[in-house]
Amino acid sequence: MAKRRANHEGTIFKRKNGTWRAQVSILGRRLSFSAQNQKTCQEWLKETISQIDEGYSYSSAQTTLKRFLMDWLVSIQPSRSPGTLEMYQSTVEREINQRIGHLRLKDLRPDQIQSLYDLRLAEGGSPHTIKRIHKVLHCALEQGVKLGLLVRNPASVVSLPKLKHQEMRFFNGKQVKQFLWTAKVFEEELYPLYYLAIHTGMRKSELLGLRWDDIDWEHSTIKVQRQLRWKKGGEVEFPTPKTRNGIRTII
After folding, report:
1. Per-residue model confidence as pLDDT tens digits over 185-226
2. How far apart, in whole angstroms, are the C-alpha atoms of residue 11 and residue 24?
3. Other Cβ atoms within 10 Å of 3 Cβ, number
4. Spatial contact of 167 and 156, defined as CB atoms under 8 Å apart
5. Rounded to whole angstroms, how far apart are CA atoms 161 and 117?
6. What is the pLDDT of residue 238?
7. What is the pTM of this model?
8. Structural domain for 219, as ranges
9. Domain tally, the chain
10. What is the rounded CA–CA span in Å between residue 70 and residue 224?
11. Residue 166 falls within a domain, yes or no?
12. In terms of domains, do 144 and 92 share one?
């Protein structure tokens, strides 16, 4: 027999196939949720009724994860760099929306997110890939909590694969001399780039973003004030470093 709740006509009942279903009405329109057990339906019903009491609308309840993520990407544009936005958009489109974007935001559960991560690992995805997906998804869903679209962030309780930290390897003095000698003989046009990389510690993107007016020949200094970044379609741009410390003068 169905269990009825007074507020908003909330109902939980067992279906013929053995699964459970919860239903609740908002202004005469019905929201439904199915699960393998009664407890999950009870939790969903409790959260939904709580959000309805706080002004949750039918249209909000019907919002899919895909629609929510696309709106979120638009909302964060003023506060993110072009490179970060491109990474977020690629992750949303290729890693999240294609797999679970059809799910309603309201119904998204931790186990569904965990299944997404486990599947990507099984497909050969690295722990760094999973961490990137999680970073984007968790950040977006956290915004959903702040906006009142979610009671809790379902990405907060999933398990992430452990990252393997590898110790960095460095050239010794003899290897540096051998490398520069080889570069000067076989790749003479790139020798200045290799020389600067070894003696200044500049990143590849910073080296490729240098211009002649960044070099002060009189005082033997180099100003780092931009970096090269590849865009889709093979285009390039030269944004400033993300942090203040990235803009510096090397003596």
Report:
1. 998 899 999 999 998 888 888 999 999 999 999 888 999 998
2. 6
3. 14
4. no
5. 9
6. 85
7. 0.58
8. 202-251
9. 4
10. 35
11. no
12. yes
